Fold these 2 entries.
Entry 1:
Amino acid sequence: MMWVLGLTGGIGSGKTTVSDLFSGHGITVVDADVIARHILDQGTPALAAVTERYGKQALTDDGSLNRGWLREKIFAEPEEKDWLNQLTHPLIRSQLLEELEAAASPYVILSAPLLVENNLTRLCDRVLVVDVSEETQRQRTLARDKVSSDQIEQILAAQASRNERLAAADDVINNEGTLSELAPQVKALHQDYLGRAQLKRA
Ligand code: ATP
């Protein structure tokens, strides 16, 4: 098995910014959010199971998933959320494993906002947390997205707390500073990870 770095951080903490810097060093990044989104794409077994359970109301006119409808459904009915998670989580996990195994870089990054919450740390040799204060999370997310303050508060409440995340960390990047302060931190960690990955291969 490849040497896997788990990369996580709360909403707006800078995960994507950091993973782009690792990509710049030639490291493959597997993004759990991207996989989760595609697991219910048109033509997938998971979408067939959703359609079987809810009928055509779960689909848009072009036959793809009506994501807004499903979001409301599982928000209103927790048991449906459980059902959906039981359907999708094993599929997401096996797709993740497949992509981690297929990576051709010296080590591979598993980037997941809910790495800690969803127990994906089990797949990782080491965990790197991008850390900022909640205030900075709010400011940067508001500046970037068209989401409301209310939505940001909901997401913050649903994610692990800063301390819970830090408790799972082997390494921490503090991203309170400027963007230019990130690159040297990433470079130093990358050197360390190359050594660790080589030890695992040996
Ligand atoms: P999400 O989980 O919400 O997708 P993320 O953790 O991937 O977020 P990014 O998208 O990397 O976070 O960063 C959030 C926003 O903050 C982006 O607009 C990014 O350009 C900006 N940002 C990241 N780091 C810094 C920094 N050190 N200084 C200023 N802006 C930053």
Note: The first strand starts at residue 4 and ends at 8.
Entry 2:
Amino acid sequence: MARYAHITGWGMATPKKVLSNFELEKIVETSNEWIVSRTGIQERRIASEIETPASLAVQAALRALEVANVHPSQVDLIIVATSSPEHIFPATACIVQDQIGAKRAGAFDLSAACTGFIYALEVASSIIRSGAADTIVVIGTETLSRFVDWQDRNTCILFGDGAGAFVLQASEEPGGILAGVLRSDGSGAELLTLPSGAGRYPFGQTIVQNGQPYIRMNGREVFRFATRVMAQSTLEVVQKAKLTLQEVGWIVPHQANQRIIETAAKNLNLPVDKFISNIHRYGNTSTASIPIATCEAIQEGKLKPGDYVVFVGFGAGLTWGATLVRWGGPFTTKRKRIFGRRHRWLSRLRSRFLRWWRRIEGFLWGKNAA
Ligand code: UT7
């Protein structure tokens, strides 16, 4: 029997603090008018001291599990795509695994910069189709605001924080993730980089003096690269799924710059309103941008069962790629939506109980250890 990987749950979490362009005008030499006209961004979310990549990921994952009506103990694997992990090690995914109570799940982080969520979807769907796992949580989470040079108007206006998650489940019903394209070109590694704090440039005074703790980007070159590969990988993935562009209902692109999205639409000869965009609210949240945009598109009633949807991304590495999904299927039918609604309060109660129980466990374990 053939196996398919269906997206059965989705969730997002963004920090409360909003940083508007007008507030940025007070930090760096820029203007709301310039940022809106060159990028489409009006505001972004900034993590507070207590919000971290793992804490945002946990919230997004719990919401996605709730939508999928899946208990954390049923999760086989957690993949966290991130460009700003909690630590170099342990993996952010392991912290998420513990905090959501996914007691029998494997967990690892995946690094492919802003294309990370696309890479993670492809890895997860391949694992599900191979039969090695039935339920996988794929998360994109970022607090890139902590790696931005707030004096560099080229980059600090772009990035925002947040997390988004999908639950992928195995089914014999055809549909779900139908095709994927992953590409890279390391010769462009210098175009977009966060060089320090790892093996090549460990933290130290020289790094700080050379300005290496921060994101550095050649904006114009990244822009050129992005517009080329967005159209190219969308076409490739559509052909791989043996479909035509006209059959595609929605494209959910990485939210980096509204002008990149508009150029891709033009290059593909598609109306721009086929492209989901919420960049004006969140800026570029890297690996989280595609799942966050998807969650909001669902809330707005845009994605319907049976729609063909392309997720397409690009980023540092250089990396780029696309995923084609037939939305809906056995888990997003009317029956499931009704079932999901009826059981949502139960699920909330269960999450709350799990949180209390983990606290009690922690307290008892602490006492025993003492
Ligand atoms: O996830 C992937 C990550 N990155 C991207 O996708 C970014 C891709 N690149 C871009 O989105 C654009 O290149 C930027 C938004 C970064 C820059 O826009 P641009 O239209 O390519 O501007 P530019 O770099 O060509 O600069 C044009 C002018 C320059 O002034 P001069 O030299 O012409 O006098 C810049 O100094 O705009 C100036 N400038 C700014 N002015 C006001 C650059 N940034 C700003 C700013 N506010 N924030």
Note: Confidence is low (pLDDT under 50) at residues 334-343.
